[in-house]
Amino acid sequence: MFRTTITRTDGTSSTGTATEAHALSLLRRAERWEHCAVEATRRGGAIIERRMWEGGIMRTRKIDLEPLTPLGSITPTMRGALDAIAARDAYLVTDAVDIFRSRNGRICAGLESIPPTASKRLVDRSLVVLGTPYPSTSNGYLPETRTPVRLSLSARLALHAKDHRTRTGEPLGYVKPMDVGLNAIGLNKGGRRGGTIYDGTSAASCTCRGWAGTFERRMFALDQARIHRQEATAALVRTL
Ligand SMILES: [Zn+2]
After folding, report:
1. Which residues of 150-189 are buried (b: 16+ CB within 10 A; e: fewer)?
2. For 216-222, what is the mean pLDDT?
3. Cα of 160 to ligand 1 centre, how many Å?
4. Residue 193 DSSP class
5. What's the CA-to-centroid distance between 66 and ligand 1, angstroms?
6. What is the pLDDT of residues 15-36, one digit of tens each?
7. CA 109/CA 83 separation, integer angstroms
8. Which 3 state secondary structure label does DSSP give 221?
9. Whether 180 contacts 200, CB under 8 Å
10. What's the average model confidence in pLDDT over 175-199?
11. What is the DSSP secondary structure assignment for residue 170, as one 8-state letter?
12. Less Cβ around it within 10 Å: N or C end of the chain?
């Protein structure tokens, strides 16, 4: 479940809740709308912003989606387990008997077998969603029950946002032209800034290593970083 906060173009807002299915359909629609951007958040939610003209003024309508159950921090071990679950048909084992009793409470994903305590933590924190249990066998004849496990929408959004952490560099500010490889005389005035030039360039990059650039001003870098995160989220939504 998600908490939704809708902020209308006139600044008024209202809150509500949305099921995972509803949140997913909102994200899919938003990805297709014109003048609309979606950005995943590290808390496992998303921000949908739609710009529209009203009375000759460009205004923004915003929907914030936030998981009702906070996901908490995701450790590298948890991340490994979630990646394994996302990559394969994973299932939770219960009702195993005899020598296979130790399988109970474990989530199996290919060769990965996630210990019961760690498995329970993933379920309790709504990082994974359980399907409908079905009867199976541990070794061909001893019975066990398997419950399909998949990543929750909030887990997918949180992992995606973690993979796309952008940073923008602090501009150098006033520098001696020679220090930045320029042959110029700089400002013609006394005091600290005399003989200097203003260097506002900002280098920006993303942890996905798929985006980087140098921008004339930091605000351009911040804008482009946000556009990169939104484009990456849109690509994710198209796969959901
Ligand atoms: Zn990225």
Report:
1. bbbbbbbbbbbbeebebebeebeeeeebeeeeeeeebeee
2. 87
3. 9
4. T
5. 21
6. 999 999 999 999 999 999 888 9
7. 10
8. helix
9. no
10. 68
11. P
12. C
Distance between CA atoms of residues 160 and 143, nearest Å: 37
Ligand 1 center–CA 168 separation, angstroms? 13
**Helix, coil or strand: residue 119:** helix
Ligand 1 center to residue 166 CA distance, Å? 7
Cα 230 to ligand 1 centre (Å): 9
Q: Could you tell me the distance, in angstroms and rounded to a whole number, from the CA of residue 224 to the centre of ligand 1?
A: 11
Q: pLDDT tens, 55-86?
A: 888 889 999 999 998 888 899 999 999 999 99
Is the whole model's pTM more than 0.85, yes or no?
Answer: no
pLDDT in tens, 35-53: 899 999 999 999 999 988 8
SS3 140: coil
State the distance from the centre of ligand 1 to the C-alpha of 84, rounded, in angstroms.
21
Distances (CA, A) of 201 to 167, 179, 204, 209, 221: 14, 14, 10, 20, 9
In the numeric block, the tokens 């009203």 are attached to 54
Q: How far is the CA of 129 from the centre of ligand 1 (A)?
A: 26
In the reported structure, the alpha carbon of residue 161 is separated from the centroid of ligand 1 by a whole-number distance in angstroms of: 9
Cα 92 to middle of ligand 1, angstroms: 32
The β-bridge partners of 39 are: 47
Let me know if 100 is exposed, middle or buried by CB neighbors in 10 A (0-12, 13-18, 19+): middle
Distance 172 CA to ligand 1 centre (A): 24
Return the domain boundaries, the chain: 2-67, 76-154, 164-239
